[in-house]
Amino acid sequence: MSKLLEMAVEIVSAHASTTSMSKEDLVAELAEIHGVLKTMDDSENSEAAAAEQSSDEPAVSLKKAFGKDKVYCMICGKGMTTLGRHLRMVHEMTPAEYRKKFGIPSSQALAAKSYSAQRRQMAIDRGLGNNLAKARAAKKAAKNKK
After folding, report:
1. Alpha-carbon dihedral of residues 17, 19, 25, 29, nearest 10 degrees?
2. Cα(15)–Cα(29) distance, rounded to whole angstroms?
3. Fewer CB within 10 Å, N or C, the chain?
4. Of 69, 71, 67, 59, whose CA–CA distance to 101 is shortest?
5. C-alpha distances in angstroms, 38 versus 6, 31, 132?
């Protein structure tokens, strides 16, 4: 069963549980609700397609996209602390595809500068860098013994 039909069935069954309805009324309401949901889905898909076609030009300039407290999506212009999840969930695109599309260097983080600094400080406070240095030294020592 399609998602839209399942949604229509849930809506109609919720309505029918509180209201007395004949078989014809149920079928008519199901058809009406399904039609409305399909129209909404079609218009949403056409808007997304139009946005994708016009997305060749960035919604935000490269300079403005990467700020101290927020990073802005160059496709839709929405501001957030990190872009990775947004790109995957909303635009169905990997960070690598996003970088290639807009010419963003791989050295540029797809996170706000303050967020990156906060995460870096947390790692330092927990001593994660020390553990990494110890692991690298142990690996080098083991390699030299061979």
Report:
1. -70
2. 10
3. C
4. 59
5. 12, 10, 54
What is the residue type of 1? M
Which H or E run contains 80? strand 79-80
Instruction: Note the pTM of the prediction, 2 decimals.
Output: 0.51
Q: Read off the pLDDT of residues 58-116 as tens digits, 9 standing for 90 and up.
A: 787 777 888 889 999 988 888 899 998 899 888 888 999 989 988 889 888 899 999 99
**57 vs 101: CA distance, rounded Å:** 10
Task: Indicate the pLDDT class of residue 47, thresholds 50, 70 and 90.
Answer: low
| Radius of gyration of the CA atoms of the chain, in A | 25
Beta carbons of 71 and 82 less than 8 angstroms apart = yes
